[in-house]
Amino acid sequence: MTEWRGERLARDARIAAGRTHATGKVVPAAAVVDLLEAILRPGDRVCLEGDNQKQADCLARGLSACDPGKIHNLHMVQSGIVLPEHLDVFETGIAKRLDYSYSGPQGARIAKMLYGGQIELGAVHTYLELFARYFVDLTPNVALIAGVSADREGNLYTGPNTEDTPTVVEATAFKNGVVVAQVNEIVDKVPRVDIPGDRVDFVVEADRPFYVEPLFTRDPAAMTETQILIAMMAIKGIYAEYGIRRLNHGIGFGTAAIELLLPTYGEKLGLKGKIATHWALNPHPTLIPAIESGWVKQVHCFGSEVGMDRYIRERPDIFFTGADGSLRSNRAFCQTAGLYACDMFIGATLQIDLSGHSSTITQSRVAGFGGAPNMGSDPHGRRHPSDAWMKAGREGQIVGDPALMRGRKLVVQLVETFGDKLVPTFVEQLDALELARKIGLELAPVMIYADDVTHIVTEEGIANLLLCRDADEREQAIRGVAGYTEVGRGRDRAKVEELRARGVIRRPEDLGIEPLDADRALLAAKSIKDLVHWSGGLYEPPAKFRNW
Amino acid sequence: MAGDRSARTDPDTLSWYEATARQRVTALADPSSVREFLPPTERRMSPHLPLFDLPRAFDDGIVVGEATLDGAPVLIAAQEGRFMGGAFGEIHGAKLVGLLRVALELKPKAVLILFDTGGVRLQEANAGETAIAETMRAIVDVRAAGIPVIGLIGGRAGCYGGGGLIAGTCSRLAVSEGGRISVSGPEVIETNKGAEEFDSRDRALVWRTMGGKHRRLTGGADAFCADTVSAFRRAALDLIGRAPAFDLDTLEAEQARLEDRIARFGDCHDATDVWRRLGVNDPEAVPAMDTDAFDAIVARVGEMDHDAR
Amino acid sequence: MESLTFRHTTKKPLPGSVPNAITGVVASGNLEVLLERVLPPDACEVAIETPIAGYGDVWEAVVADFVARAQPGGLRISINDGGARPDTVSLRLLQGARLMEA
């Protein structure tokens, strides 16, 4: 007779073993290792919650302290490889296989360990892609998650950084998995229930509050004239031109400069209400002046940002907040919003090749993708029109029946031609290809494929790739904005001038922008302190960004 | 010499913190009144930096010259905090010392020093240390001749190391919120005493310990300015008008005041403890206060207005 | 340190009569540009001191584009470079020329 409840029985056994270290569902921090050794089995698929912001760091330390004799060959399936412990477990043999999305701070070490064979890599995913696989072929046996507080029944308050938690719990709890939550404190009543208690099997009161890094704070004091010039060109040449209302911004200084120019330069161009009204975006502090000046209608967030909590609480008309008043973020929903409901993604990258493929991977760092490939792609499943989407579609359509034409999402790369230490952004070949060869990846880690990119903006000008009619035009359009890089100096000057005459390439002067007007005086805020003033004292920047 | 980005030098809006040394001087003084000594065209550059494969600056990171302030003649020196952290090298120091010495002949209404320095340049440390000593000696001579020396502090590099010592010899100091005054910098303290003693990355701690508000509240500075050039100009004019006499009485009062300060606050562990003891009701709120609110606190506490700084 | 000098002939002198000007600061990723109206009206010389060796051809291209665009006849331009990117160099050169025209 077929056993239909094998997984269920196995889960019950794991929970029963774990209960010997718990009082009800509550486990003291000191017993984390015992708990994990009781509920884990060799070869388990484990999601150790590592989001962009919120880190289950107490559970990560516990997992890395487990006895590799008892717990080994785990298959880690988590979006972020952020903490050192996330990789320590591969050095001790506790974990063996890895499927992930993003490894920003651990990018160099992960590259070394991949090369050294200590990690068996499944794939580097986008967030949505990994979340999707949680429900198909990478469903966790055990999820180790993080929240701000829980009651004794396991009802969980994630705080403003809800991020991945609902998705991870959904996949684990409803498919015979075990869910362990670390919380900063156990309370009698949680401020709001983000995860109902019947989906949480154990609650660990962490020895210290979980770690959060201010990833999205860009100090206006560090913004350069070049970044301001690029931002001016983007606003006038793309936002205004296409009437972009619904959008997602990357996290670089270029897009932060755009946020700070909306209430000044954007206002001067008469664009208020016409562009940048609806956002899928983390609560960037640099968006505060635009919000306070009435530019922004609403913002849905992937996660929160350190120091923004009070401000968000006082602006519920703008942000998604719970009955308790605090932000409710959700990475899966916000990624979906960015993919299907935004008309433009605009962000930076480290390398762009002659076709327009881009990557943030260099030979020594595997940074992963996060959400950029989803944000920065044209979703073929989209079926609702908008002016911006239809205009881009018309520009890109060369042949075929106009009645069957569909729109295009604008995918804009905003880059300076040279990065730090005079490293060129434009290259003949992406480092990602060499890295893929070196560590034997079947799929080269390209962040945004050329066929998704519509525009490249540099300090030299805007290249509209939608208007390019063949590969040669495309290459010359890219060379034509690549400045003094080798790629840029290798341009066919006559061809570039022809593209300029056709509006494929537009220089600052073609847009009516004088480069010498790109002045820091245009920034709505020139310092973090200015952002605090704009917020009426509600924004509380972390100590590392203060100079008062 | 045509100024650095002259278009941006409206004193009412120009941020002191953001401005270059030359912009500060141009916007601080009466319009078109600045005459620079040893300007960049003279190319008096460091003879030492090329040995270290380091770039030089045409003015060695300091602007010196004469100008008028409300019509009265003044001498001005301004350090460029972004060139080598505004640090003292041989030429840099010699220009400042020379300016102070010529003050004895020119007898200006005042000498203004626009500090923006991390201290002595490591690559020319001996010359730099000597320059610090010579500058302090020269300031003493200038003050003894009855000419006030006013320090203005609000740049990125703060006023550290030998710069902090020199500031201590000035007649009066004006500081903005972003300005910092100390001798050992945050990183130096952390390196020598550990992060438990002083966490240099905790910038809130750095500023409440060394920043403009703390220095003003405890009388280490005599005026607190908003971060604009015109605010510093008003402060400079005010301080020139009420510079203390440079005599034995002043020095003895200063000594007494320093002893009193140690007695009153020596056991405090944090600047907020000092502020509470000074009578500030809500010391935690001080760092976030705007200039007007802070001025009101200063006026009420009253501790810091004292002839002996 | 690498020293580079480029000499150009211009079609016309730079307008204005400001005798000299300076812009920018020697700092990481930045540079100072000193401009002096001391050469014959159809001559321009740009002398560069940079701590980053091996970018002579980039400097040459940046300077040539600047000369073509601004026609800075009569100027001797001296640069102390702190490792600035080419776009920053172009910007400072144009800022300097504007100051001289004022």
Characterise the protein shown here.
The complex is a heterotrimer of chains A (548), B (309) and C (102). By secondary structure, chain A is an alpha/beta fold. Chain A is globular, with a radius of gyration of 24 Å. In chain A, 31% of the residues lie in helices and 15% in strands. In chain A, α10 links the parallel β11 and β12. Chain B has 309 residues and is of the alpha/beta class. Chain B is 40% helix and 12% strand. In chain B, strands 1-2-3-4-5-6-7 form a seven-stranded mixed sheet, with helices on both faces. The mean pLDDT of chain B is 93. With 102 residues, chain C is an alpha+beta fold. Helices cover 30% and strands 33% of the residues of chain C. Chain C contains two helices and five strands.
List the keywords.
heterotrimer, A: alpha/beta, 19 helices, 31% helix, C: 102 residues, alpha+beta, five-stranded mixed beta sheet, 5 strands, globular
Q: Can you give me a brief rundown of this structure?
A:
The complex is a heterotrimer of chains A (548), B (309) and C (102). Chain A has 548 residues and is α/β, with parallel strands linked by helices.
Low-confidence stretches of chain A: none
Regarding quaternary structure, how should these chains be classified?
A: heterotrimer
Which structural class is indicated by helix and strand composition of chain A? alpha/beta
Rg of chain C from C-alpha positions? 12 Å
Helix fraction bin of chain A: 25-40%
Counting DSSP H or I runs of 4 or more residues, the number of helices of chain C is: 2
Distance N terminus to C terminus of chain C?
Answer: 33 Å
How many strands in all of chain A?
A: 19
Q: Treating each run of at least 4 consecutive H or I residues as one helix, how many helices of chain A?
A: 19
Low-confidence stretches of chain C: none
What structural class do you assign from the helix and strand content of chain C? alpha+beta
Sheet with most strands of chain A: 9 strands, mixed
Overall residue-averaged pLDDT value of chain A: 95
User: Element order, helices and strands of chain C?
Assistant: EEEEHEH
Q: Beta fraction of the residues of chain C? A: 25-35%
Largest sheet of chain C: 5 strands, mixed
